[in-house]
Amino acid sequence: MKVQTNVSLKPYNTFGIDATAKYFVEVGSIDQLREILQDPDYKDLERLILGGGSNLLLTKDFEGIVIKISIKGIETLQEDTEQIWLKVGAGEVWHELVIYCVNHNYAGVENLSLIPGTVGAAPMQNIGAYGIEIKEVFESLEALEIKTGQIRVFTKEECQFGYRESIFKHEAKGQYIIVNVTFKLSKTPVFHVEYGAIQETLKSMAVEDLSIKAISDAVISIRQSKLPNPAEIGNAGSFFKNPEIPKAQFDALKAQYPAMPSYPVNEYTVKVPAGWLIEQAGWKGQRFGQIGVHAKQALVLVNFGGGKGNEIKELSQKIQESIREKFGIQLSAEVNFV
Ligand code: EPU
To answer: What letter does residue 160 receive in the DSSP assignment?
Structure first.
């Protein structure tokens, strides 16, 4: 384990922002993580814990220490005829875990194919797509408490999962580092194809026997058609969360905009797609120098190369302002600003 100085973070964030970290270290084990957290040279510095850097907007150089979590391993903890429990290192690439599960016929994560990022980052915001959230296959996780160096287990209830939410974005923020996650997967699949685009894609793929592989392939195909590949165009997926608004406000807006899509949350609250709002406000496909709004999905802000984090932050604020003015809705960012 070697601490490097003045390291470009460009390869470590999917937006491809070229900010510099004063100190940078990659840890491959819990012991290495403890060691760096206790090192007198670094322990009082500001810290940035990095997984895949896929939900991150770097707005300036980082003056502290960046700790990249590269703890690997997929271990079978327990299994019976119906289920299997896999304990997975936080540094494993999420999509590689999905492919591992699909290849072994362990069902539950196929709808979450091709989501960028690492396993350790996934529970932080309860990643979700195409009708499934990680909480549905989540059993528990282990996290290192920064203050004490002790490992603490968090059960599903303790993680307080919500839509793109967990305790790690609130009460526990900045206090723990997730080191592994245990998933409970099913050996007899329950297919989730409620999401319209999955059904259409399966049809166009002429799938006869539904399988988790077919669903994974369909999701990959949908994502590739709508979402820019970070290896080609910098982005962090959805930049904003889909806002939840009071039913009365929704009814009034729906009268004005009959085409407005929506999903009921409960009796009093409705979720509306931020991508639709942003498109209606005229932002979709707009380019401003080296940054812009993706032409196929308005919820995704992009860096065409050489864009600055601050420029993307300013664009996001302008979008928020225009959605407030046009619809009276406050968008909140899904991406973390550093
Ligand atoms: N829409 C538009 N214009 C756009 C984008 C979307 O009108 O430019 C409309 C679509 O026509 C559709 C609705 O908005 O009626 C929803 O669009 P889509 O199915 O693409 O999903 P989303 O709500 O925009 C969410 C997640 C994605 C996830 C997809 C699929 C959030 C913030 N985003 O997007 O997650 O892949 O559903 O489940 O909840 C991510 O978090 O990074 C992410 C990509």
So the answer is: T
Instruction: State both tokens at 78.
Output: 């327990």
240 — phi, psi (to 5°)? -115, 160
Q: What is the pLDDT of residue 124?
A: 97
- For a ligand 1 pocket test, name from 238, 262, 327 the mutation site with the most ligand atoms within 8 angstroms of its C-beta: 238
Residues 103 and 38 in one domain: no
State if pTM tops 0.90: yes
Domain that holds residue 163: 74-186
- Asked if the structure places residue 302 within a domain, the reply is yes
Give catalytic status of residue 82 as yes or no.
no
What lines the ligand 1 site, CB under 6 Å?
129-130, 226, 237-238, 241-242, 261, 273, 275-276, 279, 284, 297-299, 334
- State yes or no: pLDDT of 208 exceeds 90: no
pLDDT in tens, 294-317: 999 999 999 999 999 999 999 999
Q: Give one DSSP letter per residue of 96-124, joined into a string.
A: HHHHHHHHHT-BSSGGGTT--SBTTTTTT
Q: Quick check: is 204 in a domain?
A: no
For residue 19, give Cα distances in angstroms to 12, 58, 62, 310.
Answer: 10, 7, 7, 11
In a domain, 221, yes or no: no
Whether residue 196 is predicted with pLDDT greater than 90 in this model: the reply is: no
Alpha carbon nearest to ligand 1 atom 15, residue: 261
Atom of ligand 1 nearest to the CA of 223: 36
- Residue with CA closest to ligand 1 atom 20: 297
164 catalytic? Reply is yes
Tell me what the mean pLDDT of segment 178-184 comes to.
98
CATH number at residue 290: 3.90.78.10
**Is the domain of 324 the same as that of 241?**
yes
Q: How far is the CA of 14 from the centre of ligand 1 (A)?
A: 19
Burial (0-12, 13-18, 19+ Cβ within 10 Å), 256: exposed
Q: What is the pLDDT of residues 244-302, one digit of tens each?
A: 999 999 999 999 999 999 999 999 999 999 999 999 999 999 999 999 999 999 999 99
Based on the domain organization, do 57 and 154 belong to the same domain?
no
